[in-house]
Amino acid sequence: MMKVKKVGIVSLSQGLLGESFICHELELGLKRLRDKGCDVVFMPHAMKGLTYLKAHPEKRAEDLLTAFADPSIDMILCAIGGDDTYRLLPYLFDRGELKQAVRDTIFLGFSDTTINHLMLHKVGLKTFYGQAFLPDVCELSSQMLPYTAHYFDELITTGRIEVIRPAKYWYEEREDFSESGIGVDMANHPNEGFQLLRGAPVFSGEILGGCLDSIFTVFDNSRYPDTVTMIDRYQLFPTPEDWKGKILLLETSEERPTPECFRNMIQALEDFGIFDVISGLLVGKPQNETYFDAYKSVLLETISNKKLSIVYNVNVGHSTPRCIVPFGVMADVNSTEQIIRFNYS
């Protein structure tokens, strides 16, 4: 029996979903969801477009609360990421709105949605990281990428992800998203699998984290002048004590940060003390394998805890194809056996 009968789509960051130039992608994604047996509903402001949603973070927050308030919605699916979902904080936390609204439902998104995952973690919801509607369900190839589809289908049919294994292939990112791109497959390359950079090959803990670029805004105001203040005000980022025993997941954005920028972001987490308390670190494959080896060097040079297990090249986040990572579920990582197993008991 299908776990997900009805999907509610939200635009919590960027309003791309409402733009006419992506209509062909939208139609493709809708057909795929319906072919999988899902009803689809767009939250009231999800299709309002880039300009409107940029100006109205309160409407984005309202849509999230509306989705939680509708008991017929089995899965809240983010349209895409963006870069300013932190602006939803006052509308979700000033009067305990999110805490009152939240219920046990599937929430899936990645990229800037990292900040929404931290919001939901704060109010006790276990969420799923790694895919979104436009980049994955609406993929222009003749079908969803098989590895990506495997995890999406597992989630909508069972409500959980049992194991993650590496993809056999990785894909070069699509550059043409126009209608002429429909049915055009992306070039692919053999994938190397999980790489243990340092530490023990086996470790356990609940996973939390997401897009490194978004996490960096917790410590740095260079993207927007008020991110640090806002995130501090609502105590959104867990304390070092809260991180104790967890596995940190990090992956880099489509901006493909330079090694120097990557070093600054990792250094901020090093200074925070996170690498001294977590049980292990999972790092996603960089998009198009840009700076693949340079990032490895930065991790080994910047993280002072030499005993910390670091597993690199996980197929999650901004590099395609993408798995789905459950947050808040005990995970057993075994890089020797090339598997991450989740324990729901």
UniProtKB/TrEMBL annotation:
This is LD-carboxypeptidase. InterPro entries: Carboxypeptidase_A_C_sf, Class_I_gatase-like, LdcA_N, Peptidase_S66_N, Peptidase_S66C, S66_fam. Residues 204-332 form the LD-carboxypeptidase C-terminal domain. Residues 7-130 form the LD-carboxypeptidase N-terminal domain. The lineage of its organism: Bacteria, Bacillati, Bacillota, Tissierellia, Tissierellales. SUPFAM superfamilies: Class I glutamine amidotransferase-like (SSF52317), LD-carboxypeptidase A C-terminal domain-like (SSF141986). PANTHER family: LD-CARBOXYPEPTIDASE C-TERMINAL DOMAIN-CONTAINING PROTEIN, MURAMOYLTETRAPEPTIDE CARBOXYPEPTIDASE. The keyword Oxidoreductase does not apply.
